[in-house]
Amino acid sequence: MIPIDSFSKIDAHIHFNADRTNVLQLADQFGFSLLSINTEVPEFPSVEKQHTLANDHHRKSEVDLAHAATVSTEGVFEEDWAEKAIANIKRRLAEGACGVKFWKNIGMSIQRPNGSFLMPDAPELEPIFSFLEEEQIPTLGHQGEPKNCWLPVDKMTVNSDREYFSAHPQYHMYKHDEYPDYWDHIEARDRILDRHPNLQFVGLHLASLEWNLDQVADRLDCYPNLAVDLAERQSHLYFHAAQDRQKVIDFFETYQDRIIYGTDIIDDPEQSPESINEELERRWTEHWQFFSSDKEMTSSQIDSSFKGLALPKEILEKIYRTNAEKRYNL
What we know:
The protein is an alpha/beta fold. The protein has a single domain, classed as TIM Barrel (Alpha-Beta Barrel), CATH 3.20.20. The chain has helices at residues 22-30, 47-60, 81-94, 105-108, 126-135, 159-167, 182-195, 204-207, 213-222, 234-254, 273-292, 313-328; strands at residues 9-15, 32-37, 65-70, 100-102, 139-141, 201-203, 226-229, 259-260, 265-266, 296-297, 306-307. Strands 8-7-6-5-4-3-2-1-9 form a nine-stranded parallel beta sheet. Strands 10-11 form a two-stranded antiparallel ribbon. Keywords: Lyase.
């Protein structure tokens, strides 16, 4: 197994939501730089606060902490919203943001007065995507949820999804036909990429196609400016490796220049720094073992054992560092 400290790395998908340094200290220990992605999550600190936290700690810390901005949907149905949103994006970029994120609230929660859902390819958002394409600004997209969200619990592929949606039926889309279907989200995102072929787009969470690597590959083949990140979809990679390890290896070899590592860890100020660090250390260590070794592994996320991918160092360096550097201009 290649040692985890054999080169510097980037966790290119975290949420730095707490005004403390525990995650930065752990990153220094493990040789990671960090990319915090601002997100319009109701339970998160305000987007303004997220931006301030990342900028302040970027200036103070020896660990490189970059951040991506997000699109505020406040007033999205007002006539001058797009103009204000673009002005805000320009301001965030001038203040150090390396890209702009669109979150799943677009498609899953924001509704028009008539009850229809605002989808990512809606006309209200079109001026934003045109601006981002023209200016070649890295664009990050989280559309929908894992496909398991639209399946019965007994058909889901990973235990974390089974447990979560069993405990939170209000978010289990299988039970809610009034919400857009899984494919509505995927097709809306694909239409954006069709309209904007030069958009520098990162499909977060394996482009929400985590259930089928052939589907991910089809999009990467179709859209040459698309990249994907792995954040919070590691369990699905374990599932695929248990089914057909060589297919997963082939996927990483073929698309080695377009895959970005990230954990999606949330430094939640309501949780103790010790618990956050324990979970992050577990992820960094376990993920590295999966990618860099051929050891037999188990995970609480799936029922079968699986072997690590034993990817060569040159591919690991791309996934763990250089792809993020290039895509986000870090």
